[in-house]
Amino acid sequence: MAVVVALVVAAYLVVALVRTVGDAAVVPVPVSATFPGPPQGPAWPAQGEAAVGVEGVGLIGVHGSSRPTPIASVAKVMTAYLVLGDHPLRAGASGPQITVRPADVAVYRADKAAGQSVVAVRAGERLTERQALEGLLLPSGNNIATLLARWDAGSTPAFVARMNALARKLGLAHTHYADASGARSATVSTAEDQTRLAMRALAIPVLRQIVATAQVTLPVAGRQYNVDALLGKDGIVGVKTGSTSKAGGCFVFAGHELLAGRTVTVVGAVLHQLATRAQPSIIQAVFHASTTLLASARHSVVKVQAIRRGATLARVKVSWGDQVAVRAAGSVTLIGWRDLGITESIATGRHLALPVRRGQRVGTVVVTAGEQRATIRLVASRAVAGASLGWRLTHP
Q1: How do residues 322-366 score in pLDDT, each as one tens digit?
Q2: Domains, the chain
Q3: Cβ–Cβ under 8 Å, residues 60 and 296
Q4: In 49-141, which residue ranges form alpha helices assigned H by DSSP?
Q5: Confidence category of residue 21, pLDDT binned at 50, 70, 90
Q6: pLDDT at 34
Q7: What is d(CA 171, CA 379) in angstroms, rounded to the nearest whole number?
Q8: DSSP, res 330
Q9: Is residue 382's pLDDT more than 90?
């Protein structure tokens, strides 16, 4: 009988030692956070429509009618974006040469006779790709838009079709191009679409350089000035103006802001601004509305430490011991504005092998706010041992 009891006890001990008692679980600590900031929102224009956001973060807001409206020469942002997508240039590079044809001269003369903004060209003249883009974006040459369309796609209709295909691909659902220059009132968009496009366009270094240039010298046209009269003022670094009687005053702008040692770029669009008694021209009206909006947006943007190094973001949970804090191995600082949410997503393996050492990585936390995303290691604050023999014997 004693032998039987001994065998039973031995078997129980073996089972207790080798049986699975459950994995350690990493349980997130619930966190919900938003950015602080002033209660007042952006200073929107009283007429037309507008949108503003921060490059690399997202839109702060959109205001006014969401119906597509003529955008005039603002359309040239897409023209340049498409050309550079097909013919990339390094920052500072000149690119291939484009020979001006007699047909290009005819377009120049016709556009000039129609009172459009033009850049003088001569048959046989050679413009580098960069010079053509400068003529497009600085003095806003409508004839240069046609020249680039022909050079890139073979014809203006083919190029315009590609502009619309690219707009659809980028999710610019309220944008339609009828020409490469924006002279036609059927070329329409919204402030939100143009703000999103400008953020993409500014990600191309050579385009960012060109729109920030005050003047250039072209082979035949000579010295040409940027029609963006606000360039260099109030931190503005571009992007594109536009104006016609149908479109009113339009301006897609970008401005730098120094925030706690970090430079961020505020990007926005103001469309369909009309002259008023205080602002007697449509260009004055759109410049006034844009600078007011930019200043208010800057005051809305704040920089916060979303995660502090050492903060407890989760706990290791086991049935046989106390919970062990899981802490962030680094800090995360993000840019945002009032009510922009901060999301923390904890990721760990399916099985956390024991024992766990103090400081051992047990997972990661992914922090997002708008388009910002940062990943930080999670480490155990102290060791986590496996189940003891005593616990195994007393917890069948």
Answers
A1: 678 889 999 999 989 988 989 888 887 656 777 888 888 888 999
A2: 19-35+305-394 (2.60.410), 49-273 (3.40.710.10)
A3: no
A4: 76-86, 102-113, 129-137
A5: very low
A6: 78
A7: 40
A8: S
A9: no
Alpha helices, H only, 98-173: 102-113, 129-137, 142-153, 156-169
Which phi and psi (to 5°) does residue 184 adopt? -80, 135
For residues 162 and 180, give the distance between their C-alpha atoms in angstroms, rounded to a whole number.
10
163 in Cβ contact with 177 (< 8 Å): yes
pTM of the complete model beyond 0.90: no
Closest CA to 238 of 374, 76, 124: 76
Name the CA dihedral angle for 234, 70, 139, 213, rounded to a multiple of 10 degrees: 40
* b/e sequence 49-83, b meaning 16+ C-beta within 10 Å: bbbbbbbebbbbbbbbeeebbbbbbbbbbbbbbbb
Tell me the C-alpha distance between 90 and 288, whole Å: 34
Amino acid at 172: L
3-state secondary structure of 183: coil
Give the pLDDT score at 350.
Answer: 58
The C-alpha atoms of residue 55 and residue 241 are separated, in whole angstroms, by 19
Q: Which residue, chain included where needed, has tokens 């669009």?
A: 269
